[in-house]
Amino acid sequence: MAINFLFKEGIKNIVRNKTSFFLSVGVNAACLLLLSLFLLLTTNLFRAKQQIEEKFEIYAFLTNDANVQSLLEQIALINGVKEVTYISKEQALSELKNDLAEYASVLDIIDHNPLPASFRIKIDPAYQLSKRLGELEEKISLLSGIKEIWSGKELLIRIQKIIRTVVGFDIAILIIVFLSIIFIVSRTVEATIVAKAREIEIMKLVGASNFMVRFPFYVEGFLHGIFGGLIAFLITVIIYLFATAQFPMLHFPWFLIFIFNILFSGFLGIGGSYLALSHVFNK
Amino acid sequence: MIIFDHVTKVFKNNWTALYDINLKIDKGEFVFLVGPTGAGKSTLLRLIYYGDTISSGTLKVLNYNLNKHFTDQHITALRRKIGIIFQDFKLLLDRTVYENIEFTLKVLGIRPALIPEIVTSALNKVGMYNRKDFYPYQLSGGEQQKIAIARAIAKNPDLLLADEPTGNIDYKGSSEILNILKEINYNGTTVIMATHDHIMAESSNKRIVHLENGKILSDGN
C-alpha cells in the first residue's frame, strides 16, 4: 500500500493551504492552552487536598483535671480512630515556640503556660469529610475531661468545594475545546477536500479505495491537532516556569498535560477530518 | 468481457437514461457508441466502471457482477483493470505531464523504482515524451487528451473507456487520438469509445452501437 505517498499527500495539503493551517493551529493552541492551565490548577488542588487529608487530625483539648490514661484508652476504642497521641502542656508550648521560630520571644511576656494539654487523633480516611466525622467528634467531646474539639474539616470542605467548581469548569472547557477543535479542523479540511475535488475524482477513477482517498485528509487533520497541541504544551511549560518563581510548591504533571495536548488534540484532529469527509462524501 | 442483459437505468428523478439494453462486447473488440447528446452513451460507460448502478437487469464486466451489493474493494479491483478518458481530460493542472501519470501510479501503489520506466513508456506510446515537463495548460487540447490516454494506459488496463475523447479537439487532433486508440486496441486492450461523430466512427470500419433515447437502435459494422 502506498502509505508513504498518501502521507506525503497529506503534508502537501497543508503546504498548499499554509494560511488556513496556521490559523486553525493557532485557534486550536489557544483552546488547548486554556484547558492545560485548568488541568494544571486542578491537579495542584487535588494534590493540596491529598496532602491535607494525609495530615488530617482532630485536636481534643483537655481540662486541667482530666484523667489522661483513661481518656487515651477510651478514645482509642472509638470506631474510626487510627492513632491517639498525648501532647502535654509543656510539649504544646515547645511546639508553638518552634513554629514561631524567630518570633518565639513574644511568649516570654506571658508568665505562665496558657496552652492546654491535648490529644492528637489521627482518623481513618473513610471518616474524613463524612457525616461519621461529626459523630466521631461528638463522641469524643462528650467524654469527661474533654474541653474542646477542633479539626481541619472546614478547610478540607472549602478545598473540596473549590475542586468541585474547578472540575466543573474543566468539564465545560473540555467540551468547548472538543467541539471547537473538531469544528475548526473539519472546516479547514473540508476546504482542502473541495479544492482537491479533481484529484479525488481521479484517484477514485483509477481505482483508489475509499481508505486511500481519505487517508491524506486524516493525516492533515491529525497534524492540525498535533501542532496545536505542541504549541499549547510549550506555552504551558513557559507559564509554569514563570509561576514556580512565585509558587515553588506548584506541581507540573508533565505526562498528563503532554498526553492531553498532543494525543487528545491529534485524535480530535482526526475526528474533524472524519466529520469533513463524511460531510463532503455524503452530500 | 462485458454483458448487458436487459439493463435499465432510471435516475432518481424518474428519467430513464437506458432502457432494456442487451449488449455483449468481447475481449479485444473496438466498439463505437454513437448517438446524439442525451442518447445514454456516457451513462452506459459509467455503468461499466460502476460510476452509476443499474436499476434492473444484469451487468457483468471483466467477470464481476455489477449489482447493488458491489463492495468498495470490488470497485477498486474493477477500476484498476479499466482505463478511462474523458472529453475534459481531467488532468491535474498544478502538476506536470510526468507528475500526472506518476500520481496515478503512486495511487495504485506501484513500486517507485518502476514508475519512471512506466511513465516513459506510456508517454512514448502517445508520442508525448518530449512534453513530460510541461504543465497541462501549456498544451493544446489534442495534446492534453494524449496525456490523458497515456495516464489511462500506464496501468496496462484490460479495458479502455473513452467518453467523447475527441469532443474538444480539431479534426487533425481527433484523427491522431483515434489512431492512438486503435493502436492500443491492436495491442490487445478492449476499447469502447463514445462519440456523437458518426462519420468518424463509420470511416473506422469498427463495430458501431447506435444509441438513441436510451435504446440501442442498431449494432454492427
Task: Characterise the protein shown here.
- The complex is a heterodimer of chains A (283) and B (221).
- With 283 residues, chain A is α+β, with helices and mostly antiparallel strands.
- In chain A, 71% of the residues lie in helices and 9% in strands.
- A 4-stranded antiparallel beta sheet of chain A has the order 2-3-1-4.
- The two termini of chain A are 28 Å apart.
- Chain B has 221 residues and is of the alpha/beta class.
- In chain B, 33% of the residues lie in helices and 27% in strands.
- Chain B has helices at 41-48, 72-79, 97-107, 115-125, 141-154, 171-186, 198-202, and strands spanning 2-10, 16-25, 30-34, 56-61, 64-65, 82-86, 159-163, 190-195, 207-212, 215-220.
- In chain B, the strands form 2 sheets. In chain B, strands 6-7-8-3-9-10 form a 6-stranded mixed beta sheet, with helices on both faces. Chain B has a 4-stranded antiparallel beta sheet with strand order 2-1-4-5, covered by helices on one side.
- In chain B, β9 and β10 form a beta hairpin.
- Chain A binds chain B through residues 1-2, 5, 198-199, 201-210, 212, and chain B through 49, 72-73, 75-82, 84, 90, 92, 103-104, 106-109, 151, 155.
Q: How many DSSP helices of chain B?
A: 7
Structural class of chain B: alpha/beta
Shape of chain A: elongated
Query: Which oligomeric state applies?
Result: heterodimer
User: Which strand order spans the largest sheet of chain B, edge to edge or round the barrel?
Assistant: 6-7-8-3-9-10
Q: β content of chain A, as a range?
A: 5-15%
How does the major sheet of chain A shape up? 4 strands, antiparallel
The span between the termini of chain A is: 28 Å
Lateral arrangement of strands in the main beta sheet of chain A: 2-3-1-4
3D shape of chain B:
globular
Strand content of chain B: 25-35%
Number of strands of chain A: 4
Tally of alpha and pi helices of chain A: 9
Averaged pLDDT of chain B: 91
Give the % helix of chain A.
Answer: over 70%
Ranges of chain B where pLDDT stays below 50 over 5 or more residues in a row are none
Q: What is the string of helix and strand elements of chain B? A: EEEHEEHEHHHEHEHEE
Rg of chain B, Cα atoms, Å: 17 Å
Radius of gyration based on Cα positions of chain A: 30 Å
Low-confidence stretches of chain A: none
N- to C-terminal separation of chain B? 19 Å
